[in-house]
Amino acid sequence: MSTPKLNDTSAAADSPVDPDAANVVPASHRSQFTQFLKTLTSFTGDLSQLTCPAFLLSGVSLLEYSAHWADHPDLFYAIAAHTDPVDRMVAVARWFISTLYGSFHSRCKTGTEKKPFNPVLGEQFYCWWPADDKEGVPETRMVCEQVSHHPPVGAFAIENDKKNIFLNGHCGQKTKFKTTYIKVEQTGRAVVTVFPPDGSVDEYFVTLPEMALRGLLSGQLFVELLGKSSITSASGYQTVFEYVPKGWFTGEYHSIKGTISKLDLPGGPLLAEAAATLIGTDASGEDAGGSPTSTTSASSASSTTSSKKASKKARKMAEATMQSAISEGEVLFEVSGKWTTTCVATRLEDGAEEILFDADEHEMQVPQVKPLEHQTDLESRKLWHKVATALNAQDYQQATAIKTTIEDEQRALRKARVERGESWAPKNFVFVSDGASAASKSSETGGGSDAGSMHSLASSKMDLAGPGLQARAALRGLSVIAVGGSGGTEALVDEGLWTFVPERPASSMS
Questions:
Q1: Is the Cβ–Cβ distance between 116 and 58 less than 8 Å?
Q2: Residue 132: which domain range?
Q3: Which of 105, 165, 261, 283 has its CA 20 to 30 A from that of 64?
Q4: In this structure, what are the phi and psi dihedrals at residue 420, rounded to the nearest 5 degrees?
Q5: How much is the mean pLDDT over the chain?
Q6: pLDDT confidence of 493, banded at 50, 70, 90?
Q7: Do residues 359 and 14 lie in contact, with contact meaning Cβ atoms separated by under 8 Å?
Q8: Origin, by domain of life (predicted)?
């Protein structure tokens, strides 16, 4: 049976919906909405800590939004079919643009963007896109977990082991009010690891755009992307996207332009080393030095501080090298269009055009999720089920009461951990610092493993309900990052990658 599809992914209505066409803010809540806007304008700090009125909630956990990385699983696993690195980079660019549509436009195309639930620490979301043997469609699987609460950071991993492609990533948000809109800085990154048919290995380091949540004054909220994002491959290619904001009187929403280039720098190994530093391994794919360490002692804290300084210095040098390579490199394609509808790549060599992504022609695929009765209490849909049910019934008072109970329980758990001096660690992920792959030999556990770039997933299928991370990490020679009792990992957001640790194959666990 083929994977079910969303009922409506048409991109015909690209611009925000007319606020007068829908009752965005219920009449009974307009005074509350006005008060909320006043609170926004006077609030200082990260808006993720601000309580949002229930009628503005989406009824879905932010952690579940990670599934948009595989909205089009066929575009994801198609990347691995290409042996030519140019064709493969074009395929990566095509897949990435497809993730933007679901992540930032699909919910507000015919309505209004609403605020998702803030995931609780340790919250998990598991899903998959089923195989279809008749159509030759292989299964794609995903694991997500909230690895930090303050600041909010969600980690995610995707695999299609039949096609030999794997993804690790994490994303956090820093939100601030800016006069007439909310600015969201997305922290984090994603790394795609590919094993093409020719036996080679390639990795792609993906950065994230910034967002502006507009339409506050009318209550008709929608997302506009800002700034730039990039995809850099270890094989020496880079895609850069620039998100062009609409002007006051001219232009259109959601315009995008970009380039796909072959990086060029005298001394190829230097470029390879720079790309590998950004991804988190050395140029040969071996340990680049350092190790993910626990933060439970003074000596380890000092070592961690020193490692961070070295990591920052290495990254600055790598970024300078990559920038030089970009300025001296060769632009192969120019990208233009709108990330909400259609994007086109033009090959500069001969002017040939090809469609990178067409939202009308390529419908989003809905992932499968276990029934609620088979989910644990920390899985997103079961955790928030009663709140979402109340929201759907427009019983906002009941939704607020249940949501408050969940949040109070989490505060009590955090307080208890602090009082007992306990640390918390994720079930499915370890943190791999920049300049160190998860293959790093840990001084605490000894031994090593190649889990950092998800190479190990080629021989170890992702277990959507496997044993605890501590046991798996010990088997793989990894140190588990111990998060403080309050669940904060501020220093860990931009200096490494939260990396999925798969269950070791049974034959090697004896």
A1: yes
A2: 29-263+329-357
A3: 165
A4: -85, -5
A5: 74
A6: low
A7: no
A8: Eukaryota
